[in-house]
Amino acid sequence: MSDVLIVGAGPTGLALALWLTKQGIKVRIIDKSAGPGETSRAIVVQARTLELYRQLDIAEAVVSAGHKNPSINMWARGKHRARIVFSDAGADITPYPFVTVYPQDLHERLLVDKLLTMGVAVERKTELVGFEDKGEYVAARLRQADGAESVVEAQYLAGCDGARSTVRQQMGTGFEGGTYKHAFYVADVDASGLEPADEAHGALDSGDFILVFSYGTEGHRRLIGTVRDERAEKVETLTFDDVRQDAINHLGLKVHKVNWFSTYRVHHRIAEEFQRGRVFLLGDAGHIHSPAGGQGMNTGILDANNLAWKLADVIKGHALAQLLESYALERQAFARKLVATTDRLFTLATSEGGVADFIKTHIVPAFASLAYKIHDVQEFLFKTVSQTTVHYRESPLSEGSAGDVQGGDRLPWTGSVGPDNYLGPAKVEIGWQVHVYGSASTALRTWCDEHSMALQVFDWNDGYQKLGLARDAIYLLRPDTYVALANAEGSVDALDRYFSSRTYTWAGAAKT
Fold first, then answer.
1. What is the pLDDT of residue 424?
2. C-alpha–C-alpha distance, residues 504 and 319, integer Å
3. Backbone angles phi, psi at 353, to 5 degrees
4. Which fold has domain 399-509?
């Protein structure tokens, strides 16, 4: 019996398989396709994803293979209105202050190859037909390419099988939301004429909307825009020549070759349940929304990171099964917020009429121009897009505060003022750990030693205070590097109370 059966080998499923395997969990990952995707599809890898990819030793590989877009430029009616420089806005926030453009087909192949080095291969041409939660395990019926069927057992089932998820349909949970009247087009092209060529660009026109991302070399660009009017009714048969070119022409972009073109309807939906018993939904199986801001794939990968450590702790006997309920509580809340945000942005970008045109071509550019001049606004926008602002303060796993940092927050990155706390002085395995900025008491060192808890102590400097950290405080970190407990007094008793008062226990990991 496998520990976890993963259905779907896109970025979400592959990331889940990697994080589980890294923690010693036995997985099977199946996909009905013959191989990884052949088209670029999702291309943006955000900073928070890269931070967490460091746990898998693949962050630098993604950055090296991808294209760093250091800034985004805002245009309206052919005029340049603003430029937000990520390298400035995010310099004190993350080691990755840029937007990485890395086509999904290449991304998937990198994840597949990494998984192979860990001894796990994707089982291709294998389809989930159905499953039954038996209470103690899940029995799943699989169909091979030749039509042969078999029943396999796993402790847990993870549905990472996309917007048309078989797992979600079998669960019987709702998938509430709707479909926009406009459609999207996506094109990978060779182009010239838009400067700076290595930066991202966004244009709002009265009749059109477009995003342009640079990737690779020799003028490779990704275009994302809207399909309007009667053309949206025949979206399946459109070609690039059929797309309204207003915004493209106003940008001065000259398209020389179309390498790939696709159109699709845009939905905004969230599953009513992310978990039912031993079955979970992740990525597009649980939430879909407009591609505004490049959030979709990254959200699915963060779903995987959130669930993986919780499954590992439960399967290893370090925690009670109730811990898994926090997955849905934390990730569903974020998904709802994200869908609402992208819905508002997409509705604004695609709205029509005189008032809407005025807002898009005057009000929005004016705000963007203001953001260009005010660092705090640029920083806020970068944090939002990069998902470094995601927090779980309302989670039952979050407690306390020390300095400006609260339980549930992403641990502030300290690499701009001192040692990089995402790796620490010595690289640690994925797991719980304690951070202290200043001095650690003898009692704390003894507690961590007795409980096999990694302890990272960083010599105090004033830069830590500017980041919101408190001197000599205890920051208990979850395996996904979010703060579980922040205690300003540095109390060891607070650690004991934290674990003993919840539905899981640290006793399973203590020394015997």
1. 59
2. 4
3. 110, 165
4. Glutaredoxin (3.40.30)
What would you report as the CA-atom Rg of the chain, rounded to the nearest whole angstrom? 23
Q: Which fold has domain 2-37+47-63+102-174+272-343?
A: FAD/NAD(P)-binding domain (3.50.50)
- Ranking 19-23, 173-177, 400-404 by mean pLDDT, the lowest is 173-177
Give every CB contact of residue 149 below 8 A, 6+ residues apart in sequence: 129, 141, 142, 143
- Region 48-62: what's the mean pLDDT? 96
Phi-psi region of 77 (alpha: psi -120 to 50; beta: other; left: phi over 0): left
pLDDT at 364: 64
Looking at residue 283, its amino acid is: G
Return the amino acid letter for 364: V
CB 235 within 8 A of CB 264: yes
pLDDT band at 501 (very low <50, low <70, confident <90, very high): confident
Q: What's the order of all strands across the beta sheet hosting 220-227? A: 79-85, 71-76, 200-205, 208-214, 220-227, 175-192, 254-271, 287-288
- Backbone φ, ψ for residue 464 (5° rounding): -65, -40
The domain spans of the chain are 2-37+47-63+102-174+272-343, 67-100+176-269+356-367, 399-509
In this structure, what are the phi and psi dihedrals at residue 329, rounded to the nearest 5 degrees? -60, -45
Beta bridge partners of 85: 71
Tell me which residue of 404, 413, 492 sits closest to 458, measured CA to CA. Answer: 413
User: Closest Cα partner for 305 from 58, 43, 33, 40?
Assistant: 58
**CATH architecture label of 67-100+176-269+356-367:** 2-Layer Sandwich (3.30)
CA distance 496 to 505: 10
pLDDT at 363 over 80: no
Q: What is the pLDDT of residue 510?
A: 37
Q: Which residues contact 311 (CB under 8 A, 6 or more apart)?
A: 3, 4, 20, 25, 156, 324
CA distance 270 to 339: 8
Report the length, in residues, of the chain: 512
Q: For residues 92-105, give the mean pLDDT.
A: 92
Q: Are 248 and 156 in contact (CB under 8 A)?
A: no
For 432, phi and psi rounded to 5 degrees?
A: -65, 145
Can you give the pTM of this predicted structure? 0.91
pLDDT beyond 90 at 442: yes
pLDDT, position 129: 97
Q: What is the DSSP letter of 123?
A: B
DSSP bridge pairs for 208: 205
Residue linked to tokens 């998938």: 175
Q: What residues pair up with 400 in beta bridges, in sequence order?
A: 486
